[in-house]
Amino acid sequence: MKQIYRVDKSGNLAQAISEITAPKLLLLMSNNEQFEQHVEELERHFPGVPSIGCIGGSYGGQTVVADNGVAVIAMEGNLSVVTNVLEQASTMPVKYIGRLEEDINKVAASQNNTICIDFCSGNDACVLTTIYSVLGKKHISLVGGTGDGGKVSVNGKIYADADVYALIRNNDGKIKVYKENIYKQVPACRFIASKTDRSKYLIGELNGRPARKVYQDILNIGDKEMATQTFKNPLGKMNGQDICIISIKEVVGDKLECYRQVNDSDVLTLLELQDISHVVENTINQIKKDFTHISGVFSINCVLRYLLFSQEHYFETYLKSMSVLGDHAGLIGYGEHYNQQFVNQTMTCVVFE
Questions:
Q1: Do 89 and 33 touch, CB atoms closer than 8 A?
Q2: FIST C-domain domain location, by residue (predicted)?
Q3: What is the rounded distance in angstroms from the CA atom of residue 41 to the CA atom of residue 13?
Q4: CB neighbours of 276 closer than 8 A, spacing ≥ 6?
Q5: DSSP secondary structure string, 183-205?
Q6: Among residues 79, 88, 242, which one has the least CA distance to residue 172?
Q7: Which helix or strand (DSSP H or E) is residue 322 part of?
Q8: pLDDT of residue 13
Q9: I need a surface site. Which of 130, 254, 295, 333 has the fewest CB within 10 A?
Q10: In this predicted model, what pLDDT tens digit does every residue of 185-196 receive, in sequence order?
């Protein structure tokens, strides 16, 4: 397997793909103004080649495209690939689950050498529950993320309210997925959520008190700091011994609007930032331990992680650190997928042998 990242910061797709010759799969990351044009143009240049796409920034090697450019990740080599879509993501994605079941058979998917990469337009939690009802039975891993603009593409066709996916079987080696959390729990800060609004991702109360007041009192901050405090102190939802990060979007009265759904009686915790470079180093070392040869790494980094890393003047250092693994490229997403989990402020990735 070989992974190639090509980009044009001005949005010229023809320039970006000029050196791509024999792709088995194409991942498109475009901008809002040119997305439709780029989807059509990519299909015209590579008719019949499986592709999925979304609106979002990207990175590869030590290059970052955050705004108006276009990027394509081409995967070549001894791969079996099929791409498809689950429609009606906000209401009934299960209606289309038969497509995924058939596609698993088409690539002869198996636990150790197959991955599902998906791009979603929204309603991620419902979509992931649907997808993993099939993938989980086969022990097939998934990584992916949410794009911007409420639109995604597959094989030259654009969909709103949908999840597009690529099933990839690596015929030359194994595949393994990872999730990186740069936060840890603040001791003795556990909450029971109540008066939530699932449809609006609102938390009304924590431990019976207004959510905004609880959050600000613990951190001793005012309204002004709330806009960026989630960079350092997001919330976390307990999932066994694991923690799913929940980013705070904004304050709505005394409520907290989040980027991820919270339900009444959910057990939440306050998180705090760890030493970023130390966490990244541990992730890299674990991947090195698991692989003697790496063909490529595809990752999704949350846009809030990107903003935090940029604020700390760390993102270039981060890309340089990840480059020791080999060809590394990915999407700056608006929510990250890791198997059945929908998380925020996280990095998820798949490593190909």
A1: no
A2: 211-340
A3: 8
A4: 182, 309, 312, 314, 318
A5: EEEEEEEEEEEES-BGGGTEE-E
A6: 79
A7: helix 315-322
A8: 97
A9: 254
A10: 999 899 999 999
Q: How do the residues of the chain divide into helix, strand and coil, expressed in percent and rounded to 5?
A: 30, 40, 30
Summary mean pLDDT of the chain: 95
**Matching residue, tokens 């070989």:** 2
Residues β-bridged to residue 248: 258
Average pLDDT of span 147-175: 97
In the sheet where 157-160 sits, what is the strand order?
Answer: 2-8, 70-76, 25-30, 51-55, 148-154, 157-160
Indicate the pLDDT class of residue 82, thresholds 50, 70 and 90.
Answer: very high
Least confident range of 58-72, 105-119, 199-213: 58-72
* Of residues 147, 144, 115, 114, the one with CA closest to residue 128: 144
Asked if 264 contacts 193 with a C-beta cutoff of 8 angstroms, the reply is yes
**For residue 41, what pLDDT band results from cuts at 50, 70 and 90?**
very high
Q: Which two tokens stand for residue 225?
A: 């700091």
Yes or no: say if 17 and 45 are a contact pair by the CB < 8 Å rule: yes
Write out 114-150 in H/E/C secondary structure. Answer: EEEEEEECCCHHHHHHHHHHHHHHHCCEEEEEECEEE
pLDDT score at 93 = 95
